[in-house]
Amino acid sequence: MLLLAAAFIVAFVLLLYMVSPLISPKSLKLPGAHVVVTGGSSGIGKCIAIECYKQGAFITLIARDENKLLQTKKEIEKYSVNDKQGPLLKLVQVPVVASCPSHVSAVPPSLVSSAGFLQISLSVSLKTEWSHVKVVLCISVDVSKDYEQVENVLKQAQEKLGPVDMLVNCAGTSVTGKFEDIEVNSFERLMAVNYLGSVYPSRAVIATMKERRMGRIVFVSSQAGQLGLFGYTAYSPTKFALRGLAEALQMEVKPYNVYVTVAYPPDTDTPGFAEESKTKPLETKLISETSSVCQAEQVARVIVKDAIQGNFNSSVGSDGYMLSILTSGMSPVTSITEGLQQVVCMGIFRIIGLFYLGSFDSIVRRCMMQREKSESADKTE
């Protein structure tokens, strides 16, 4: 009887694996696709742009720092120069829409010629036709401040490179510290950058995606958007908010063949992470050290792969996989096998998670006791 039950379970699992691809979304083809990356001048955003460009996509980089944007643009284009097909770099000039001041103000001055033209570098493969031209367009704008400006900038990008096939919301910032030590305006600023900075670009492109019955929207959250940790009282809520936005939006756009991905990268070796580490409380540093730091290139490859496939959750490494299972809740699934994995692994992962939480609480208690001892010793001197 046990053998029969085991055989039935094995057969059922095999059937799920066979049926799963039939209900999963079709993969998005990147060659010739228009990919917009906010926060694309450094870190994970830059690596995502590079990964998409290497796979043949047209790239629009959006960030605030014009100098970083231009440096990133040059770095991305190196992958075209080093391509085995030997591409040709060419400078193309297209008119800037003078009737829309917000368009002009959003474009870096260094990209606009004295004649009022926007300069775009095109890299052309010598072994391909002109229809396979690769383009990197840079636009400087703060995606968290003015929705109309963000909308106008994205309209301009679509006029030059076509409708947006994939939007990657990677603009973000972080502040760490004890709840009572963080300035109130920091809570407001982080919510604006990390949440509204993803809402505005997404809203600007979603109508076109629904009309075309295709598209991908990626929200780059964080493992701190799955688990609230010491020191992240200002940061974590903004990343948790992205999950709620993504779940609601996915339910709205799924009938239109538009898929949403939420990425939960771990600590990643980026300029932002290095800056954040300078002000981390001791407790936060010790908790962070319980897992390794990933490379931005590795994280970018995983995010791009999951976005192309239309996966709702994107995680990196074993810790990331476990967290995604534990926090799956009522989140969408894009395959039967994914749902089955969540059902099977939830219990054992919860047990493991309890040990993690216990160790984190222990770290916080030890730090508190050490601090109290130090303060007591200072008073007695």
TrEMBL record:
Enzyme class (EC, first level): oxidoreductase
GO-annotated molecular function: 3-dehydrosphinganine reductase activity
Pathway per the UniProt entry: Lipid metabolism; sphingolipid metabolism; Sphingolipid metabolism
InterPro entries the record matches: KDSR-like, NAD(P)-bd_dom_sf, SDR_fam
UniProt entry keywords in alphabetical sequence: Endoplasmic reticulum, Lipid metabolism, NADP, Oxidoreductase, Sphingolipid metabolism
GO CC annotation terms, alphabetical: endoplasmic reticulum membrane
Catalytic reaction(s) noted: sphinganine + NADP(+) = 3-oxosphinganine + NADPH + H(+)
Protein name (Swiss-Prot/TrEMBL): 3-dehydrosphinganine reductase
Organism placement in taxonomy: Eukaryota, Metazoa, Chordata, Craniata, Vertebrata
